[in-house]
Amino acid sequence: MQRLVLAVATVAALATALPAAAQFQKPDDAVKYRKAGFTLMAAHFGRLGAMAQGRVPFDAASATANAEIVASLSKLPFAGFVEGTSGTEKGQPKPNVWSDRAKFDEGAKKMQEEVAKLAAAAKAGPDAFKAAFGAAAGTCKNCHDNYRVQ
Ligand code: ASC
Known about the structure:
Layout: H1 2-17, H2 27-52, H3 60-73, H4 96-99, H5 101-115, H6 118-124, H7 126-147
Helix pairs in contact: 1-3, 2-3, 2-7, 3-6, 5-7, 6-7
Bound molecules: ascorbic acid (ASC).
């Protein structure tokens, strides 16, 4: 698990060092990439949510492992938001991702900061974990409300 997290983190560091568009052959590749990233994040964040909401018993080791994965994955999808990939169908990014990019990036950074706190919160116990999960989920929702077609 540690090694996987390290590998993902290394790739994330390399990926973010390149200009976004330069990483993809064509816009559709960028769309697939970011969707894959968010799909993985949602799977692992969902496992945390199940514990935060009491649908699954809190398990510090599992929560910590999933939180570390989410924190690493959170660095990946944003490189996939290349120009010309907005849309009007449910789930697609609205054009304001690009017309208001600084604010969008700020929201992404806020999300990354909040998910980075989840592992330590999981180690601290269920109450700290629940609070940190709520804060992180709020940052997801904020961008969905503002930048994703409903
Ligand atoms: C999840 C998930 C999201 C966020 C969001 C929070 O578990 O897949 O996209 O939480 O629903 O509001």
